[in-house]
């Protein structure tokens, strides 16, 4: 099934290259017969006429009269009357070539790219044509592109099962898991491994920077037929009605959370805002609120407000105890 698609993709690339060179070719030969042009270009007359019809709707942004490529026909002869700036074969300047090389190198390093081989082939052609750029001292590193990410990507490409030590922020716990990777991907500047988790018996997303250790097993990854990749078009976290809803009163300095987290409701309350959002669980919400500044107050639920109050009081109490400088381990025991 992939071969016809590959041929189709190649044919499209060949046609694009032909169209880019067709305008300067015709400009240099006004009034040329279509049959002669087809022979020079190595295509049939029918294909050339189809190319000319396509050129007629190509041009500059605006795509109105005076923007599109225009031609005049006299019987079987054709003349370009407006070239829309395509008056010579495409030649990249050194700056343009370097920008394209950097973009392709970044694309090649992005987790989840479906056809890295095609990207690398295009990169090799551009570097070869550009000459001096082949050895250009350019290093591309994506945000979060660490040694761990590269290690995971290599294991996924080899199709191996992995044993990982993973920190789950929502529950503030570290677990050992065996996973069968489906793919690597980049979402919101962070790298993830999407895999079948044998512990959860379901497809899970694992953030690369929360994988504390990874061991590549001497067995192939086996993904059950019922496993389906997540739809990440709206991001990794997708709030649903069955998740806890919390409401916070936030001051000006903490309004950033309304841009960073998906909120169900934001409304003004004098100089402050009332912000409601869904969370994975109240344990994560407690740690989240405690990590914010004094401009945040829990409005609901009461259970979360009590948890935050209790943990904050315990922290203040710990700071209030005197420290035995000779033996810090017994600080406060004599009180």
How would you sum up this structure, described in words?
By secondary structure, this protein is an alpha+beta fold. 36% of the residues lie in helices and 26% in strands. It is built from nine helices and twelve strands. It has helices spanning 2-27, 34-41, 45-55, 94-109, 116-130, 147-158, 257-260, 282-290, 302-320; strands at residues 32-33, 70-74, 77-82, 160-168, 173-187, 190-197, 202-207, 211-220, 245-250, 263-269, 272-278, 296-300. The strands form three sheets. A five-stranded antiparallel β-sheet has the order 7-6-5-4-8. Strands 10-11-9-12 form a four-stranded antiparallel β-sheet. A hairpin with a 2-residue loop joins β2 (70-74) and β3. The chain is elongated. The protein starts with a helix and ends in a 15-residue tail after the last helix. Mean pLDDT is 78; it is low at 1-10 and 331-335.
Protein topology:
Elements: H1 2-27, E1 32-33, H2 34-41, H3 45-55, E2 70-74, E3 77-82, H4 94-109, H5 116-130, H6 147-158, E4 160-168, E5 173-187, E6 190-197, E7 202-207, E8 211-220, E9 245-250, H7 257-260, E10 263-269, E11 272-278, H8 282-290, E12 296-300, H9 302-320
Antiparallel strand pairs: 1-3, 2-3, 4-5, 4-8, 5-6, 6-7, 9-11, 9-12, 10-11
Helix pairs in contact: 2-3, 4-5, 8-9
């Amino acid at each position: 099934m992939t071969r016809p698609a590959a041929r189709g993709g190649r044919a499209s690339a060949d046609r694009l290259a032909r169209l880019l060179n067709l305008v300067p070719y015709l400009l240099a030969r006004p009034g040329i017969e279509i049959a002669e042009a087809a022979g020079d270009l190595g295509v049939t007359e029918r294909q050339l006429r189809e190319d000319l019809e396509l050129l007629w709707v190509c041009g500059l942004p605006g795509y109105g009269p005076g923007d599109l490529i225009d031609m005049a026909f006299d019987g079987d002869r054709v003349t370009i009357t407006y070239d829309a700036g395509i008056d010579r074969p495409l030649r990249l300047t050194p700056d343009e070539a370097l920008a394209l090389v950097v973009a392709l190198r970044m694309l090649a390093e992005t987790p989840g790219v479906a056809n890295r081989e095609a990207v690398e082939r295009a990169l090799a052609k551009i570097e070869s044509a550009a000459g001096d750029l082949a050895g250009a001292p350019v290093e591309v590193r994506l945000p979060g592109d660490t040694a761990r990410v590269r290690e995971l990507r290599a294991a996924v490409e080899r199709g191996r099962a992995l044993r990982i030590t993973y920190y789950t922020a929502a529950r503030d716990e570290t677990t050992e898991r065996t996973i069968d990777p489906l793919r690597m991907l980049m979402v919101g500047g962070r790298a993830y491994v999407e895999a079948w988790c044998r512990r959860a018996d379901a497809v899970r997303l694992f953030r690369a920077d929360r994988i504390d250790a990874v061991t590549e097993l001497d067995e192939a990854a086996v993904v059950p037929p019922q496993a389906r990749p997540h739809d990440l078009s709206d991001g990794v976290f997708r709030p649903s009605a069955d998740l806890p809803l919390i409401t916070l009163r936030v001051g000006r300095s903490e309004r950033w959370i309304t841009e960073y987290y998906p909120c169900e409701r934001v409304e003004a309350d004098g100089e402050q805002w009332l912000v409601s959002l869904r969370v994975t669980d109240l344990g994560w919400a407690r740690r989240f609120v405690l990590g914010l500044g004094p401009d945040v107050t829990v409005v609901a639920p009461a259970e979360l407000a009590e948890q935050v109050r209790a943990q904050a009081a315990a922290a203040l109490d710990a700071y209030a105890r005197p420290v035995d400088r000779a033996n810090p381990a017994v600080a406060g025991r004599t009180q």
